[in-house]
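Sync notes, pocket subgroup
Present: LS, DG
LS reminded everyone that the earlier model was apo-only. Rerun requested with zinc ion included. Inputs:
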Amino acid sequence: MPVDTATAAATATLRMPRPEELHRAVDDRDPSYEGIFVVGVRTTGIFCRPTCPSKQARRENRRFFLTTGEAAKAGFRPCRRCKPLERPGGHPEWARRVIETLEANPTRRLTDAALRRMDIQPATARRYFLGRFGMTLHAYARARRLGFALDRLHEGTPVTPTGFDSGFESDSGFRDAFKKLFGITPAAARGTPPIVAKMIPSPLGPLLAAATEKGLCMLEFADREKLPRQAEDLTRFYDRPPVPGTNQYIEQVIRELDEYFAGNRRSFDVPLDIRGTEFQERVWRELLRIPFGETISYEALAIRIGKPTAQRAVGLANGRNRIPIVIPCHRVIQKNGQLRGYGGGLWRKQFLLELELRAAGIVLALGA
Ligand SMILES: [Zn+2]
């Protein structure tokens, strides 16, 4: 594979997130760092996920590793409580049961009593859903019911029976809740296929994937402060808000991402439904042509779209890419090899470039 000088320079700057960031993630048990690093504790010889519920080690006793393999090689044993060798970012078994129950029967009401019958403490469920999805289990279930209602409306079912079928006890309660979540009335939503959105785990933290009936339209790092604006962009460019759910394109990108992160996939086949300004779309389509494991400069990208003086605009369009990883904006770097900005954080850009270079067989000398 050809390696230009920019790529070579970029590899030299690839590294872990800054120590301060790593310590903060451990202090806060920040779930967005799940699968990104593990932390070894010198005094016990055990390594943990960043979110381990056990008592935290003092900062001076922590050692950070990018992979569980590196921690094991350094002599640390996996913690029995947070089980860092199990799939990163996955939900615990009980949470999977709750989510599957709601997927199988979205109109079901999961009362505290129903949770206890499933051997789940309601307080634990509340805390977990709040931390993981930014909403209580109750709100999550209601959003799921409203997503179910939206599907029915899309099929042409009239508003009032849809509300009752979706588990709402009053017509006005359904209309209010619907309007509050989606920003449009149920009547306005009739006959419009929804944009569905699903949170998916990844080694870079949770991703929010969204798709229309035509293809994937968003794949965003779920902890980004830009997320609300991206959701607004979706509503503007596609004339509809995203709702919780999934479809064939979301399931396809989940499979392809698994292969990509395992180093077994070099390009994505999932169909995309790209909508932006004409200029943005030109830049995004050009990004799709940059091969796996290679990088180009902003200058080169501007030249490729026939606007050699529009470097700044090209950089901005790059930053507004709503489908990172699949549309590889991480492969654009500065001419001198510095990575420059990345909406999801520079460390994620480093992670992606490192992953691709490793998979492409380029040996890296990594600073730890
Ligand atoms: Zn642990």
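DG: DSSP finds 16 helices and ten strands in the chain.
LS: Residues 1-15, 363-368 have pLDDT under 50 and may be disordered.
Action: DG to write up.
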